[in-house]
Structures are given as structure tokens and as C-alpha cells.
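Take one protein record:
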Amino acid sequence: MGSIRPFNIKRTAEELADKFPDLFGDKFEDNKKKLEKMMPDVSKRTINMVAGYITRYSVKKKQKAKREIEENSAS
């Protein structure tokens, strides 16, 4: 079972990941440090939740892109 995140965490993470695709990657610690600089007045717990979801979101996007390439090359 996965963890359930509030909608505002998901929305914020997806917006940031889509707006800055080169800035965020699949490393949680790197994403967390970048978020701490971008949003200094946000709580540590919220930063961690957003960074975690950005990490998961970027991994999921990479897997989806890889799967689509494999499906197109197989066809």
C-alpha cells in the first residue's frame, strides 16, 4: 500500500515538476535542498512531502516515457 498525500501536496509538486523539469530529478535529497531554497517559509514536513512526491512523480514520468518508447519500437 502506498501513502496517501493531500491534494495540495500533489498539486504543488506536479506544478513545480512540470514548470522546472530540469531542476528536479529522482533524488529526494537534491529535490529537498532545492525546495528549501525556493520556499524558505514552508514547514520542514511540507517540504519533505512535496520533495517526496516530486521524486515519485519524476520516476513515474520516466518509466512512462520508457514504456511508450518500447511499445512504439515493438509496433
